[in-house]
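Quick one from the shared queue. A colleague (R.T.) flagged FkbM family methyltransferase as missing a structural entry in our internal table.

Convert sequence to structure tokens.
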Amino acid sequence: MSRLRATLTEWRGLARSLLLYHGNRARHRAMDALYRRFLAAGDLAFDIGAHVGDRTSSFRRLGARVVAVEPQPGPMRLLRLIHGRDRNVTLVEAAVGAAEGYVTLHVNSANPTVSSASGTFLAAAREADGWRDQHWDHTLTVAMTTLDVLIARHGMPAFAKIDVEGFEDAVLAGLSQPLPALSFEFTTIAREVAMRCLDRLAALGPYRFNLSLGEEQRLVFPEPVCAEAMRDHLATLPLRANSGDVYATLAATGPRAAQNSIFTG
């Protein structure tokens, strides 16, 4: 694919993303209700893998300040258009991983939301039903930072959303202290990534877990569960479940933490 054709294909993909992620008010309401469990006005949130910024928009509707991190130039241009004039949003054009440096990003021009820095994830996708029509047609070398560096520069977030297509375990490898609350994406074609994320979080602190499937914006369990129970649940999900987000909160240590640790309501 020529670079011009790839660029045109990417912009069509981004246009679809804008319509899908920014054009559904009912989805926005459900998303805000979910994230309100973890964020209040004035809190700091990290949006790791911001893509076209629908989560950043949700965090801002809740009154949170946001650090939005995205390595792809196309989505970053859209983020600047949507959020660039908002003084409560800091945009960082970079990947996030285990160490500072550079990483190769595999770009899916037609569907940029599944661009990934994980070669293992791409290999799994190429062999999986439902993913074979996805094509990663070129690569970019992008700067990479870490969660620890972002915290040092911007402060401790009340919540961090991590959605980086099979690179979530690398993101958490660059974190040396527990966050109050976070989410990470999982896929059923690369469950081992989620298992490593659970292991890392268990090593960092006394986390409890819930999950939301796909883009439902609803938590599955009425009460949070331990890492082992979440591991068992993820292992038994059917392949057709495809993806979702695991939510983790530290055990309650005070009134606000107690509120955040409750996944019901």
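Residues 253-265 have pLDDT under 50 and may be disordered.
The chain has one domain: 3-261.
Added to the table.
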